[in-house]
Structures are given as C-alpha cells and as structure tokens.
Fold these 2 entries.
Entry 1:
Amino acid sequence: MESALTFPRAPKGFTCLFTSPYQQGWDIYEDETGTLWSLSKDNPDRDSMYGKHLHLLDELSFPSFSLLPTEDGGRRFEGAVVLLPPDYFLRVEHYKKMRALNKRFPVTISKTDYTVTTRH
C-alpha cells in the first residue's frame, strides 16, 4: 500500500487518501469536514485546498491523474464509479497498479453506457 511522504507535516485530523508515485507532486488529504487538500511533496508553500469529493471523482477520469490510493482512500471511495479514462487502453499498466494497490478500485462498466435505443 502506498504511504505519503507528506504525512509528518500534515495537520492533525487530516487523512491521506491519494499519494503521488513521483518524488515531486502532491498527496491528497481529507480534513474532518470532508474538504480535500493537496500537500506538495517538495515545496510546502504550494499546499492548497483541492476541493470536494465530486471534484476528485471528476479528476479520476482525466488521463493526467496519476495519484495512487492509500488504504484510507480506498475505503473512502469504495463503490465510487467513474468513466474509464480516455487513455485507459494506453495506460493499462498504470491502472492495473492502481487496482493492485487497492482492490476497492475495480473497473466497472455500466450497462447503460452501451444501451442502444432504436426507433420503430
């Protein structure tokens, strides 16, 4: 399971949900009110509010999203369904790693995405 390098300086009560696989980047934390915060791995002056959960769910479907879930992140977003990212088939190994790190992130295809309506 991924662990956050920013954990030692995170404010009390913050829970790390996602962490960057790179030396530079951000770890995403949640505070007691459900607000998400991004803590920079290499420059604390770049820490900022990240948004709410809906914002993160939108980000999960972007090709540039490379953060990996922590154990707490997996529990917090268990059951969340997002569209497959447009680059899914180009970055299968990355998404495979995400799922391997946390079994709560399965690939789910909604049947409604493939429903075809015909007119008679």
Entry 2:
Amino acid sequence: MAELVTDYLEGALPLHRRLAVNLHLFRCPACTRYFDQMRRTIALLRRIRPPAPPEAVEEAVLRRLADARAGIDQEGHDRGGAAEP
C-alpha cells in the first residue's frame, strides 16, 4: 500500500486502483493514519520556499550570462561576437 501513496494523493491512479485503495483505507486504520500523515507532510513541503542564492553566486551567474551574450569566454577572451542563441 505504501508504494501507492504518492500516486493516490496526486490523483494519478486509475479509477479501479483508487477505488481499491479507498476500500483498503476504509478497513485499515494503520494505512489510513499513514496516508493522512503523508498528506500532511506533502502539504507542509509544498509550503517551503527554496532559499535565495547567496548574492555572490547570483552576481557570478548574471556576469557569465552577460559575458556569453557579449561573446566573452570564461577566461575573459573575446570570441569575436555574441554567442549563438
């Protein structure tokens, strides 16, 4: 039953499998508790926002993107024009 929890909670199971899981959950308090715990865990995880990258990393990425657009390689050498899209 545990292998079906994600597909069940995301609504990805075919109807016949979903009905079978529903019947099992109706009869099995242990699985019902497990599914409820997973439902709450998934809801909490969806609320977490990834941390912002350190400013130095963001600046380095933006600089490399600008250099690539200007045709400059990582060593600072001009490649003779803008990079291909």
